[in-house]
Amino acid sequence: MKRKSIHKSRWKLFRNNYDLYLLLIPGLIFLLLFKYAPMYGIIIAFQDFNIFDGFIGSKWVGLGQFAKLIHSDEFYQVFNNTLLISFYKIILLFPVPIIIALFLNEVRRAVFKKTIQTIIFLPHFLSWVIISGLFMNILSPSGGLVNHVIEWLGGTPISFFLDNHFFRSVVVFTAGWKESGWNAIIFIAAIAGIEQEQYEAASIDGAGRIRQMINITLPGILPTIILIFILRLGYLLEAGTEQILTMYNSVVYSSGDVIGTFVYRQGLGQQDYSFSTAVGLFNSVVGLILIVSGNELSKKLIKRSIW
């Protein structure tokens, strides 16, 4: 009887909002065609795929490509680079948008606030090709602004894009320069949702701006911070393929080659489609495990989670 009533209520909900459900159809079709249908190609990871034989004619090797992956010394170097760059980006860059949002919230002059927002949002709209060219000029060992300063201080020019000691730092810095302002948008929106009465009450009680920021603003956006952090964990093995592809070269493979660029070189460069698909599948499975684990850990420790 209870199931029948639930079924009735659901059908009633559908009838009353059928137009909204119809709007879901284009999105569902998009997901099916461009997200789920291509997953059929995962079987390449279990084959010795030949582009001329296709899916059906290619030899089935089971877990052979994954065994090759495990025994590949090059992959371990790539995996290590990916983890290091991702950890650097999380530790150094994740707090930056939060700090930007907190301080922008304290700016009272609307014109000044909008000007700052525009300036820090703009780099997001530049492609990595443009940004790479820009920083290659700025960091150039012959004529670059940074090396001019180093020489003026008595140092010797540094080839930032050809030095394994500096390449990861360049990757992390440029990623922060490009995306930190844009990533602050979601935290700015979360701050806007905090009730102003809380600030008024805190002000009456004698709390200053810093105290209000710590006791009201930060706790108010904590659920958003947790959500973004859990989602970021899912992309731990995505260290910025597009960015690194436009910046690196064979000289800095030992410090800058990540899983995404490795898949690109193996798949398109050497036409080893099966091995590159196996690497990509490994990347996706690890990302899924990380995001589920992060969600469960968040649920247990602070009673907040995505689902």
UniProtKB/TrEMBL annotation:
Location within or outside the cell: Cell membrane; Membrane
ATP-binding listed as a keyword: no
Keyword Amino-acid biosynthesis: no
CDD domains listed in its UniProt record: TM_PBP2
Superkingdom in the source lineage: Bacteria
InterPro entries from the UniProt entry: MetI-like, MetI-like_sf
Gene Ontology biological process terms from the UniProt entry: transmembrane transport
Alphabetized UniProt keyword annotations: Membrane, Transmembrane, Transmembrane helix, Transport
SUPFAM superfamilies, A to Z: MetI-like (SSF161098)
ABC transmembrane type-1 domain segment(s): 79-294
Gene Ontology CC annotation, any one: plasma membrane
Topological type in the membrane: Multi-pass membrane protein
TM ranges: 20-46, 83-104, 116-139, 216-237, 273-294
Family membership noted in the UniProt record: Belongs to the binding-protein-dependent transport system permease family.
UniProt name for this protein: Protein lplB
Species this chain originates from: Paenibacillus selenitireducens
